[in-house]
């Protein structure tokens, strides 16, 4: 009960950020970059173990943008020029120019590497088909639905490979769902293709957006757990769930704000966890940050994760001891 985890991305250390820039300029070869990505992954696995996080992530030290990363390895995509994503952050928006496919597994090798470093479960991390479609230009498929369902089949293959490799948890991130509530049914259909029949615990992460619009269909998302940001909204989302009665799925409870440099106090997070326990059962709640921590410094990310763990342990002790 009240297991601690993280949403996915963790900040890259300075040495890796510099190395990735050098690699893009042709000043560093792929082997040298890979060695530094593995070093950073080892460091984050060790940090999460030292913090005593229950379900850990590899930190995505080898990835840039969550959609462009998969488009780079899937067939049927090419890359556009830089497009602003938010703030002063840019990415090369993928363009669907042909039938989407997959030459080989994209995430399994990195998942095996990370899982081999720890006895704790490491999440398999995928970007969902709806988000890949929505954050790409489509120049091939006749409709958004056709593109989404084609991508869903490929993401499904990746999920099956992760499960065969031994992943106990598979997270399929769908942040774009909350921005187009009129396409919620399409997102549900596509996610169903990805998760149908999987034995691993499945999770989707959704951040921000209009939850009053998508909320009535949240329970229809075909996953075991829905991970949401609560801290950024001052836990107003609890009122949304309270009004709708018992929620039938597990909830990833974001308790620290990943877009703030401020480090929340343990007492603050304890108080908010207790509020959540008036709405959800203890066995429903997984405690984590609001979203990926890649926008924070390594020091800030570590401090925020430490607060997550300390607060959760304090509440566990009060509840169960």
Mind sketching the topology for me?
Blueprint: E1 3-4, H1 14-24, H2 30-51, H3 68-73, E2 74-86, E3 89-102, H4 108-115, E4 124-127, H5 129-134, E5 137-138, H6 144-165, E6 169-173, H7 184-195, E7 201-206, H8 211-214, E8 225-229, H9 237-243, E9 250-254, H10 266-276, E10 285-288, H11 298-320
Parallel strand pairs: 1-10, 3-5, 4-6, 6-7, 7-8, 8-9, 9-10
Antiparallel strand pairs: 2-3
Helix pairs in contact: 1-2, 6-7, 10-11
Report on the structure:
This protein is an alpha/beta fold and about 325 residues long. The chain has a single domain (about 5-65, about 105-320), classed as TIM Barrel (Alpha-Beta Barrel), CATH 3.20.20. The chain has helices at about 15-25, 30-50, 70-75, 110-115, 130-135, 145-165, 185-195, 210-215, 235-245, 265-275, 300-320, and strands at about 5, 75-85, 90-100, 125, 135-140, 170-175, 200-205, 225-230, 250-255, 285-290. The strands form 2 sheets. Strands 1-10-9-8-7-6-4 form a 7-stranded parallel β-sheet. Helix 7 (about 185-195) links the parallel strand 6 (about 170-175) and strand 7. Helix 1 runs antiparallel to helix 2, helix 6 (about 145-165) packs parallel to helix 7 and helix 10 (about 265-275) packs across helix 11. The longest helix has 23 residues, at about 300-320. The protein starts with a strand and ends with a helix. The model has no long low-confidence stretch (mean pLDDT about 95).
Cα-based radius of gyration, to the nearest Å: 19 Å
Order of helices and strands: EHHHEEHEHEHEHEHEHEHEH
Q: Which CATH top level class fits? A: Alpha Beta
* CATH architecture descriptor name: Alpha-Beta Barrel
Number of domains: 1
Mean pLDDT across every amino acid position = 94
Biggest sheet overview: 7 strands, parallel
CATH topology: TIM Barrel
Strand tally, please? 10
Strand pairing plus helix content: what structural class?
A: alpha/beta
Taken as a percent bin, the fraction of beta residues is 15-25%
Tally of contiguous helical segments: 11
Measured between the Cα atoms of the first and last residue, the distance is 13 Å
> Ranges with pLDDT <50 over ≥5 residues?
none
Provide the spatial order of strands within the biggest beta sheet. Answer: 1-10-9-8-7-6-4
- Principal-axis shape equals globular
Helicity range: 40-55%
């Amino acid at each position: 009960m009240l297991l601690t985890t993280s949403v996915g991305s963790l900040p890259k250390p300075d040495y890796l950020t510099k190395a990735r820039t050098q690699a893009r300029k042709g000043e560093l070869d792929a082997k040298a970059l890979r060695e530094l990505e593995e070093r950073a992954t080892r460091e984050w696995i060790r940090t999460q173990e030292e913090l005593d996080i229950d379900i850990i992530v590899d930190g995505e030290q080898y990835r840039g943008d969550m959609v462009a990363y998969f488009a780079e390895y899937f067939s049927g995509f090419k890359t556009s020029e830089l497009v602003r994503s938010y703030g002063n952050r840019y990415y090369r928006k993928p363009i669907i120019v042909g039938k989407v496919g997959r030459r080989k597994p994209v995430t399994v090798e990195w998942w095996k590497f990370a899982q081999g470093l720890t006895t704790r479960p490491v999440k398999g991390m995928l970007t969902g088909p709806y988000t890949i479609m929505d954050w790409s230009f489509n120049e091939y498929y006749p409709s958004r639905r056709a593109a989404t369902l084609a991508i869903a089949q490929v993401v499904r293959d990746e999920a099956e490979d992760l499960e065969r490799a031994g992943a106990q948890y598979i997270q399929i991130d769908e942040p774009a769902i909350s921005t187009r509530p009129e396409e919620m049914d399409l997102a549900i259909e596509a996610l169903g293709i990805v998760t149908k029949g999987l034995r691993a615990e499945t999770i989707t992460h959704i951040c921000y957006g209009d939850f009053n619009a998508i909320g009535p269909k949240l329970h229809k998302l075909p996953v075991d757990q829905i991970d949401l940001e609560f801290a950024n909204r001052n836990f107003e989302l609890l009122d949304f769930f309270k009004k709708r009665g018992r929620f039938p799925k597990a909830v990833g409870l974001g308790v620290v704000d990943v877009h703030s440099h401020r480090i929340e106090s343990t007492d603050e997070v304890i108080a908010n966890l207790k509020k959540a326990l008036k709405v959800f059962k203890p066995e429903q709640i997984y405690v984590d940050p609001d979203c990926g921590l890649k926008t924070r410094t390594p020091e800030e990310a570590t401090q925020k994760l430490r607060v997550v763990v300390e607060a959760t342990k304090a509440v566990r002790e009060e509840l169960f001891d």
